[in-house]
TrEMBL record:
The gene is lnt. This is Apolipoprotein N-acyltransferase. Catalyzes the phospholipid dependent N-acylation of the N-terminal cysteine of apolipoprotein, the last step in lipoprotein maturation. GO terms for biological process: lipoprotein biosynthetic process. GO terms for molecular function: N-acyltransferase activity. Keywords: Acyltransferase, Cell membrane, Lipoprotein, Membrane, Transferase, Transmembrane, Transmembrane helix. It comes from Leptospira ilyithenensis.
Length: 586
């Protein structure tokens, strides 16, 4: 420990800390919500400096990798501490160590990159910028990341370069970043450029060496130019595509409470919540046609509208919740997509140990008939489940959720214009006297013909940031709906980062994204990855956001069909070339 503090008190240690800060700081400010994307090209320089200084010293590179991980985590993911204390319910003396341990484990990509890149450079022994791209791709593919911050997501803040995600996702943009950034790092010495000039333009020099220099420099610029050209072409192509139609979507952001450990009245708070949802729907819908109303994850927490023996036995089913959802659908003649809890018992055995909970979202059509539901598949560790049974005793807040099985799209129905009616519209307070069936009977004469209009791809919370998972859904959706509850992370940058990481799915699928959050930030994103009007709902507030979503013609993009094929091919070719080069010339 003394040697640790002694090292960082030296000039060498100070420079190392400066490298950590350069990488973490420039990455953070290049990303949402700051979005100064040009800074990302500078961010890897700190990594390259440390690798060069300690090349081949594997233990030191690993320790410095942990240093990058801790500083990077503190800059970009400081909100994890808030999540652990609020979402997980851990006391501060446990939350601190959890934060530090997760910083190392979930950012193992830093030591892996430093060691793998140093190994490659040491073996090749020459400037070869492709090695940086191969090393970063290797580190991103083979290290654990609960909140995957691929470097390419930061590059994707540039609307032109981001279009290439249609082929290579964010991973491919990571390769571009490290390829060009390493070239910049090697270009910082003027003497090196003087040597290059002499070799290229002085007669009598080795022609073979000239060809290698031309190939090395040309390949970097050719790839960079290729990404820009491809991005510009794709941007122009998709900006001018004619949509098949449009849908009017209303997002309701209710700002529902997380929990009631502060002594508030549950009944009073839920009553106020339902009144907010009722009023926001009226304000947002007006008298215009609405095709879909979307409520976020935990928009109405703790309850279910799914009336089954299991939900009634566990007291999750609440008839007034179902009545309110029916009112929204029938009053506005719209589809309603909302989040709820659902349960069943394993093998039908009704014991506490066999109880299985699901984070579920359901859709009811404009006649208030249940049309489909989706149970979250990709669960969040330390929030929805614990990796080990004994850990549940540490946190009473952590759920015991099961993964859903279905990867089907959610169908939605044709809707009708809201029209003048002799009926007085029902509201939340009416649910005290109107059962779900009574609500449907009340609006029975205004029922519209049932016809499926299309389907959308449902994603709950962090599922949207995992490209490999999203492409496993079957069918061709009209658009993507992501419902989430970012309130667990407080008034932080997390909600912007969460959305920006998920925004790339719009480009990979060429579909619009409807993002509905509990407390901000809700937004519409088009198939080019652009946030419509940059109109985000404010944090820690109730609000509504209405938008016209374009239905882009069904088109199976390269990434959607083949996934990471090009990236695996790049790693395979790079590895084969490396083995051949070392065997042939070393």
């Amino acid at each position: 420990m003394k040697s640790f503090f002694r090292y960082f008190s030296t000039r060498e240690g100070f420079i190392a800390i400066l490298c950590y800060v350069v990488t973490a700081g420039f990455s953070t400010f290049a990303f949402a919500p700051f979005s100064q994307s040009y800074l990302v090209w500078i961010a890897p320089l700190g990594l390259f400096y440390i690798e060069k200084k300690y090349r081949g010293e594997w233990k030191k590179l690993i320790w410095h990798g942990f240093g990058f991980a801790l500083v990077f985590y503190s800059f970009s993911f400081h909100w994890i501490y808030h999540m652990v204390t609020v979402f997980g319910g851990f006391p501060w003396f446990l939350a601190g160590p959890i934060f530090l341990i997760s910083a190392i484990i979930l950012n193992f990509k830093f030591p892996v990159f430093l060691v793998s890149f140093s190994f490659l450079v040491k073996k090749v022994g020459k400037f070869f910028p492709w090695l940086a791209g191969a090393a970063v791709l290797f580190s991103e593919f083979f290290t654990p990341q609960v909140f995957p911050w691929y470097w390419g997501n930061v590059v994707g803040e540039n609307h032109i370069l981001s279009q290439n995600a249609e082929y290579v996702s964010a991973y491919g943009l990571s390769v571009l970043l490290f390829l060009f950034s390493y070239f910049l790092f090697q270009s910082l010495k003027p003497k090196r450029w003087k040597k290059v000039w002499n070799y290229l333009f002085t007669t009598g020099k080795d022609k073979t060496r000239k060809r290698k220099i031309v190939f090395g420099l040309g390949s970097v610029f050719l790839v960079f130019f290729g990404f820009w050209t491809s991005g510009a072409y794709l941007f122009y192509k998709w900006e001018n595509v004619k949509p098949l139609g449009t849908k009017e979507v209303l997002i309701i952001q209710p700002n529902a409470p997380l929990e009631f450990r502060d002594g508030r009245s549950v009944a009073e708070e839920i009553n106020l919540l339902m009144e907010r949802i009722d009023n926001l729907a009226i304000q947002g819908a007006g008298k215009d046609k609405i095709d879909l109303i979307v409520l976020p994850e935990s928009g109405v927490p703790f309850f279910s509208t799914h009336e089954t023996e299991e939900t009634k036995a566990t007291r999750l089913y609440w008839d007034r919740f179902e009545s309110m959802m029916n009112i929204l659908a029938l009053r506005h003649k719209a589809n309603v997509f909302y989040n709820e809890l659902d349960v069943d018992f394993k093998d039908g055995i009704r014991t506490r140990d066999n109880l299985r909970s699901y984070n579920s979202s359901a859709l009811i059509g404009p006649n208030a008939d249940r049309k489909g539901s989706y149970q979250k598949v990709y669960l969040l560790i330390f929030g929805e489940y614990m990796p080990f049974e004994w850990m549940y005793s540490l946190s009473g807040q952590t759920g015991r959720f099961e993964s859903g099985k279905s990867l089907s799209l959610i169908p939605y129905m044709e809707t009708a214009m809201s029209s003048a009616t002799p009926l007085s519209p029902l509201h939340w307070f009416d649910t005290a006297n109107f059962s779900p069936k009574a609500v449907k009977d009340y609006y029975g004469k205004e029922a519209i013909s049932e016809k499926q209009a299309g389907s959308f791809l449902p994603l709950i919370c962090y599922e949207v940031i995992i490209p490999e998972f999203v492409r496993t859904f079957q069918g061709d959706p009209d658009f993507i709906v992501n419902v989430t509850n970012d309130k667990w992370y407080g008034n932080s940058v997390e909600t912007y980062q969460h959305h920006t990481l998920g925004r790339m799915r719009a480009i990979e699928f060429r579909k619009w994204i409807v993002r509905s959050t509990n407390s901000g930030t809700s937004v519409f994103t088009d198939h080019l990855g652009r946030n419509i009007k940059d109109e985000f709902t404010p944090l820690d507030s109730s609000a509504f956001l209405r938008g016209t979503v374009s239905v882009i013609p069904g088109y199976e993009t390269f990434y959607r069909r083949y996934g990471n094929l090009l990236l695996w091919l790049f790693l395979t070719v790079s590895g084969s070339f490396f083995v051949f080069y070392v065997w042939k010339f070393r």
